[in-house]
Design a protein that fits this description.
Chain lengths: 234, 234
DNA sequence: ATGAAATTAAATCAATCGTTTGACAGACTC
DNA sequence: GAGTCTGTCAAACGATTGATTTAATTTCAT
């Protein structure tokens, strides 16, 4: 059944992309066949190969569609942050905000539901195969390098090695939370509530900030987290 | 029937399991075919269906082989911990230690390399499909519930909802770190060093402990982490 | 309106998937 | 020794995979 179409002349290419995104988010990149995608998009089996050259080509398009904007917005936010504070170190919370906020920005640009979008992003950033198109990988590497430097400056005295490991742990918390949010609900028996996006972002930032600096510093006057904040004043 | 006379007969089943584990760790549960497994094990294609009923049966065996021991050791360690301290709350670091130490215990019981073992565990605990055999799922749920109570007692005044979310973030950091350790190395350009298992465990525990309590409490006299500790005295 | 290009549908490709079959050899019980 | 399990094997099963071909249709500038 077609879930995307409605207007039969909406560009087939676009319908394919949207169908692929929803299916990839739901079942993972591996478990979805070309026929699953074309069926859902109401298109012919050959359409994928016509428009994207191959299944892999479609995957690459889907990957690049969000990863690049997210990473570029991350970079832009970090640069704006550093411009703001001059040469001084940026509070860890603000670096983290620059790191995760782009997801909230891009989720609105997407036609996917919030839940599906984050599942998809979690799969993208969490998948190992990581056959990222070269362009995507390039942006990714430079972005990570920039954030490593920013964190290193915000956590003076910390060895580069430790900065990398804390970034890795921090990113793991973020990715896993995005990809498996509903698993938490299943295991907690509903005790995990139904937080808004802002609440979840805030929860992550506070958790990650504490982990990044590990009490080895005084919490630097953290900016009040935006959005509805009920549970936990700093 | 239980005569183990034939040496190569029992070995086939075992070889299949070990081959499957290595391949699953390397490429993920989805990307490995039955023929990949039987070829690597030097067995016939039909062997998997003969010994395990189906491919899914083999997957279930592989899943249960480590998940159950890990979760049971987690429970045992937590109970020993609570017995030790009487009714008092356990320091967060010690609860976390009970949560991750079993991986270090079980890695030695395994014939896989350290790297492959953790990749496999990361995939198991991180995969979403989570078609865990019912027995495995049962142990999993009770174990999580017990740890939630322990963390709640160690973090007084924290709402159950927040405890669940911090556990989720904590587990994400752990799982992602286990599954994608080599990704860190690739992205950091070698700047992430070559830490020992104990160093990595210690890094995780300190990161997670800080995130769990988020500076909302004084760090409770944490036990000195075992193993080689050079970088970061508490 | 016409011709060229774009896009589709339908059929088909070889390859691979998980699974099944039936035969066969060895080891055991009676 | 007949009968009966168990484990293994080559071979093949039908189904599905990603990809390709062929022909018909639509789109659009001229």
């Amino acid at each position: 059944m077609n879930a995307v179409a409605g207007d039969s002349k909406v560009a087939t290419k676009q319908r394919l992309i949207e169908a692929a995104e929803a299916l990839f988010a739901d079942e993972g990149f591996d478990r979805v066949s070309v026929r699953d995608i074309t069926t859902k998009a109401g298109a012919n089996v050959a359409a994928v190969n016509y428009h994207f050259g191959s299944r892999e080509g479609l995957v690459a398009v889907v990957l690049a569609r969000y990863i690049n904007p997210v990473n570029e917005e991350r970079l832009a936010r970090l640069e704006a942050l550093e411009r703001k504070v001059g040469g001084k170190p940026v509070p860890v919370e603000e670096v983290l905000e620059a790191f995760v906020r782009p997801f909230a920005t891009q989720v609105r640009r997407s036609e996917l539901s919030e839940k599906l979008f984050f599942k998809l992003m979690g799969r993208m950033f969490g998948q190992e195969g990581c056959n990222l198109p070269p362009v995507v990988e390039t942006v990714f590497v430079t972005m990570l390098s920039r954030f490593q430097k920013a964190f290193a400056k915000s956590l003076p005295g910390l060895a580069a090695e430790d900065v990398w490991w804390r970034i890795h742990l921090m990113a793991g918390a973020m990715i896993h939370t995005m990809a498996h949010a509903e698993t938490l609900q299943r295991f907690s028996g509903g005790d995990s509530g139904s937080p808004t996006l802002e609440q979840t972002l805030s929860r992550f930032i506070r958790f990650a900030a504490a982990g990044m600096r590990q009490g080895s510093e005084e919490p630097q006057e953290a900016e009040k987290p935006k959005g509805p904040q009920v549970e936990f004043p700093f």
